[in-house]
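Repro:
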Amino acid sequence: MGKRQSILLLCLSLLLTSLSGCGAGNSAAGDDAHYIPVFGCLGETGSVYEANGILYYTDYATGENGVLCSKPNCIHEPYSSSNTEPYCEAALPNGNLSVSLLSGNSLYVMTTDFTGTEIYTKQVYGETWVTLLEIPYGFSSGLQRRIYDKKLYFTAASYEHETDITGEEMPALQSFPFLIEVDLDRRTYRTLTEYEDGSSCTDVLFIEGDSLYYETEYPIRDTYETTYRVCIYSLNLNTLESEYLFTTDASHVFLGAHEGTVYTCGTAGLMMLTEDGTWLPACQTDTCTSGYSYEDGILLSVRQDNSASILHYDYKTGKVSDVPALPQNGYLFDVMGDWVLAITENGDIAAVPIEDLLSGRAQYTATWRPY
């Protein structure tokens, strides 16, 4: 019971303290959208976020920001016990815990009562929600979801409602976390991994081709506190065989993969792990504090003599170049498609075309504050 309760507490802390959003971490070439806690769902052309049961959309190119509803004179009333079939197109389909995801012009919403998950879909503007699939597992809104090649990947677990000593119902973990793949076209799903004894939570990180990269945490208990060893694995989506790659530390934090080579950042700078298991420096850099991979390369935040700068690593040439500072003292937040996302000194999220940033013409085309 001790191990079961400790894992339950860990997963419930993720479940109950996270806010709604979309499928976080470092963006991958081919990712359509991913989840960033608090900030909502970041897509390749815009961002969706939820406020009080209503979805809002920001277009990166035009800067337009508003409710995702095209109905005239709509008062945008959310779902409630007295409004179970909302008229508003931007209203979430039910009152359960939910996260939204963008893929092209399609919008998806996952909702859960922890004992099961329903996936709904519709076009970004217009139409009503259509139930795509029901899955007999719950999910954590604190973990990532990724859409890649019209398939949705996320961490699931089985729960049942149990009554606690106060008489209140709480979700109780029945099976430990595992990864699931949902085929959005065929409306089917399959499990990809099983729970590994001694681990706690598993999270999707990155997908490239037939390889899915994920991390698993293993509790390390001592006299005073519990810490975690975080291991990175590669899963072959054809054979469902997993391969251990490395353990995260200050020198190696997972960034992404390109043509079978894994990239990390940290105190060792930008490093790459080749397919034969050899670590090599990708380039000569100082300590990388974070990095964001995309189709052609990686944008790096680098600490140099108590100051920070941005570097660009080109996959094709292997060369590194300086990148001009972001406007409004912005710092890198993510890369989605052709767009670099930043957090400004005012706390806003802002978008700038990556081509403009690399050429020194950085001007934000959209700014918004989804909280």
